[in-house]
Amino acid sequence: MDERYAEETQTLRELLALMHEHDLDTIKVKLGDAVYELSRANSEQAPQADGFSSASAGESVPEAGANVTKVLAPLTGVFYLASSPDAAPYADVGDRVEAGDVLCVLEAMKLFNEIQSDYSGTIVRIVPGNGELVSQGEELFWIEQ
């Protein structure tokens, strides 16, 4: 077994573990040039019932204006708007945030990484859904300055 095959097998195992740990039906991750997309057989996407919102596939997505700055994921991980399921979200659409404010947490390798805003402004869009896996470089928030 060559080294690349072993690395890809390990990556797939880790993605499957994330799917099971967070009860995800599908997962899609881009790592370098490789794209991994896994889904459970015969699963139906459950409606989001956690109170957090994001744009879904058929929904129209607004264009970012010239005064909108996009906050990107600094790492690949599971996106959470709150520190725990029963806690209030760090930020929501319409909230005014200051540079240094915590916007969300990304869970990667059992570590929770607080993501802080580098910008001051008003949150006009939250891109991923709560509990969704995001890849490094993906949009998380739009902040209008």
Give a description of the structure.
- The chain has about 140 residues and is mainly beta.
- The chain folds into two domains: about 1-40, no CATH class; about 55-145, RNA polymerase II/Efflux pump adaptor protein, barrel-sandwich hybrid domain (OB fold (Dihydrolipoamide Acetyltransferase, E2P)), CATH 2.40.50.100.
- Helix content is about 15%, strand content about 35%.
- The chain has one helix at about 5-20, and strands at about 25-30, 35-40, 70, 75-80, 95, 100-110, 110-115, 120-125, 135, 140-145.
- It has a four-stranded antiparallel beta sheet, with no helix packed on it. A four-stranded antiparallel beta sheet has the order 7-6-4-9, with no helix packed on it. A two-stranded antiparallel sheet has the order 1-2.
- The longest helix is centred in the N-terminal third of the chain and has 19 residues, at about 5-20.
The end-to-end distance, rounded to whole angstroms, is 52 Å
Low-confidence stretches: 42-59
What value does the Rg take, in angstroms? 16 Å
Morphology: globular
Beta-strand percentage range: 25-35%
Report the CATH superfamily of the largest domain.
RNA polymerase II/Efflux pump adaptor protein, barrel-sandwich hybrid domain
- What is the oligomeric state here? single chain
Share of helix, binned: 10-25%
**In CATH, what is the class of the largest domain?**
Mainly Beta
Give the total of domains: 2
Overall pLDDT metric: 79
